Amino acid sequence: MFENKGRTEIEQLGEFGLIDHLTKHIEIKNKTSVKGIGDDAAVLNFEGKKTLISTDLLLEGIHFDLAYMPLKHLGYKAIQVNLSDIYAMNGTASQVTVAIGLSSKFPLEAVEELYQGMTIACEKYGVDLIGGDTSSSKQGLIIGITSIGYADEKDICYRDGAQEGDLLCVSGDLGGAYIGLQLLEREKNIFLENPNIQPDLEGKDYIVERQLKPEARKDIVEVLKLMKIKPTSMIDISDGLSSEILHICKQSKKGCNLYEEKIPIDPMTYDTARDFGIDPTVCALNGGEDYELLFTIKQSDFEKIKNNPDISIIGHITEAAAGCNLISKAGIVHEIKAQGWTSLKSN
Amino acid sequence: MFENKGRTEIEQLGEFGLIDHLTKHIEIKNKTSVKGIGDDAAVLNFEGKKTLISTDLLLEGIHFDLAYMPLKHLGYKAIQVNLSDIYAMNGTASQVTVAIGLSSKFPLEAVEELYQGMTIACEKYGVDLIGGDTSSSKQGLIIGITSIGYADEKDICYRDGAQEGDLLCVSGDLGGAYIGLQLLEREKNIFLENPNIQPDLEGKDYIVERQLKPEARKDIVEVLKLMKIKPTSMIDISDGLSSEILHICKQSKKGCNLYEEKIPIDPMTYDTARDFGIDPTVCALNGGEDYELLFTIKQSDFEKIKNNPDISIIGHITEAAAGCNLISKAGIVHEIKAQGWTSLKSN
Q1: Same domain, yes or no: B330 and B235
Q2: Alpha helices in chain A (DSSP H)
Q3: B128 located within any domain
Q4: Chain B residue with minimum CA distance to A339
Q5: Same domain, A265 and A149
Q6: For chains A and B, what is the number of CB pairs under 8 angstroms?
Q7: pLDDT tens digits for A101-152?
Q8: Is residue B160 a part of any domain in this protein?
Q9: B120 and B14 in one domain?
Q10: For testing the chain B interface, which of A83, A139, A252, A343 should be mutated: the one with the most B CBs within 10 Å?
Q11: Contact A281, A260 (CB under 8 A)
Q12: Residue ranges making up the domain that contains B138
């Protein structure tokens, strides 16, 4: 579960000792962060810009399984997942707060690893950790992250701006995080049945990494800005492509045509899904946790985007009455249905 | 645990159905809230003001016990506790986000009660609920709240601004929330031993309410503004007077003299503490959860404040070398020690 570096009980430090220990190396770097950790609230300065706020809760046994999720990766992922929401508004992420609940099974060394992953993510994405809360928990590990960012009002992309004729685009490739999870679950079950068998993840780095160490697409937001494209709507893919497309169509009061053959799926995702007897398209549509960006752009922006290897055009927006349709490789039209992330059904 | 209104399983609604159901009546009222629930992030506008952010995590079995905490009160308290941090910066609270983890023991009706309490608190304090996250949980109820507010830079009160000679002030009275908790715990234990015995809280409304339904001191922030007093430092009392005084002294690099006889304690708190064989002063110093404001003001502001029945002057700030001292009623000098909130030790 965590690397073996000895075991220091958190009780020895107490709450304030723990907070001091974990936060003493944290530096404030953004000029928008006026005051970080150490007071009742953090103080931020977004003069002239709009403030963006998003909150996520990650619970042990629901959102992550420490049997195969190293704590450093978990810390990294927890930050990514939340920054992704700020990028999905076409904003700049600048701060995070971190609330952690810890049961007594976690020694200080474990919490340090979690924080290390968070700190690496914050540094990589240029985000300040400005505050939080630390508590004991009876329920294992609980992580609550609030991410904060900013944008000029004219740049903000909502979910409700898609117009008829707009092109439906997605960054990166889809389904990898889901099939990576299936692989990790299988190896965990084999290990539980026979602890002498080591996990066989040989050659599966890409999809395992998609699950354990996703990257929020800050780069896509920057590339769009460079290309002078403002998406008419945008959302991040946390719950699977189907669910996110329906959010955009519902809020924009539009329909869409999505072409199965255009959905970007990595060959390793494709082959591993086949090995598991799962349709790769289903992984992309309903899998979730890819943290890619789904967005719509005007047709007039087509020339700017068409040669970008990191962006795929997967369909277009139609009038609401036409419905939300998936056109299969065989040319059959299916209605897109919400599947969504199953975290509410898992208990 | 919650009023009997039938039982609707949350699974029937699904995550998005639950969010829609709970949030459909939520209206945005503050002009600083540009966009609330329904996108990847909320959008806020604090043009010309600084943004204040604070996060708290409340966990079942650690921070609250549903045996005596009605869910509506819990929702109300969860919001209060967090707004209190914004007021402690001398700011105006304007928004909250709410992240909730729910185990399957909670039907929809229970979550509705929790939300009802939150909504009542938001309305009373003029705060918009602008977003959040909802998830299943394997064990019990998890509540993560982030509160957001704003202030002019010149008005913000940090913990580190106390100066030698400043008067140490506190709002309201202290120790009530702690002794209220002792009373509720006693009645719970009697009930567990003999379920036929009903709780005897007769005439104890005030201290029970201090525990179950605290009020963040927005009114004190407003009164100070009216009196043209800017505290030189301020903090809210969540962990007990001792702990908070030490925060101010440590961060301001100062000492203090605190006079036991000046600490405001309500007669019911005093008498009930005596009944329990607890020193009432200890309840005030180490009890926590009073959510009053502790602040320092310049001596020149004494005349403005001296007749305010809701503010007590309990001591003064000294040079650091003099240490942090409690002068007892008998005139004996004790060093003030951090006790702090025990939520990290309870597991």
Answers
A1: yes
A2: 14-23, 71-87, 108-125, 176-193, 205-212, 218-226, 241-252, 267-275, 280-286, 302-305
A3: yes
A4: B14
A5: no
A6: 247
A7: 988 888 888 888 999 999 999 999 999 999 888 888 987 899 999 999 999 9
A8: no
A9: yes
A10: A139
A11: yes
A12: 10-155
How deeply is A122 buried, as exposed, middle or buried, from its count of CB atoms within 10 A (0-12, 13-18, 19+)? buried
Q: Find the length of chain B.
A: 347
In degrees, to the nearest 5, what angle opens at C-alpha A268 toward C-alphas A216 and A224? 30
Q: Which of residues 318-347 of A touch B (CB under 8 A)?
A: 338, 340-341, 343-347
Residue A11, chain B, CB below 8 Å: the answer is yes
Closest CA of chain A from B139, distance in Å: 6
Given A155, A184, A216, which residue is the final one in a domain?
A: A155
The complex's ipTM?
A: 0.87
Q: Is A231 on the interface with B (CB under 8 A)?
A: no
CB B150 within 8 A of CB A41: no
Token digits for A38? 């150490």
User: Global pTM?
Assistant: 0.90
Interchain contact B202–A (C-beta under 8 A) = no
CATH number at residue A237: 3.90.650.10
Do B138 and A347 make contact, defined as CB atoms within 8 angstroms?
A: yes
Question: Is residue A240 packed enough to be buried (19+ CB in 10 Å), middle (13-18) or exposed (0-12)?
Answer: buried
B174 close contact with A: CB closer than 8 A:
no
Co-location of B107 and B242 in the same domain: no
Domain check: are A255 and A336 in the same one?
A: yes
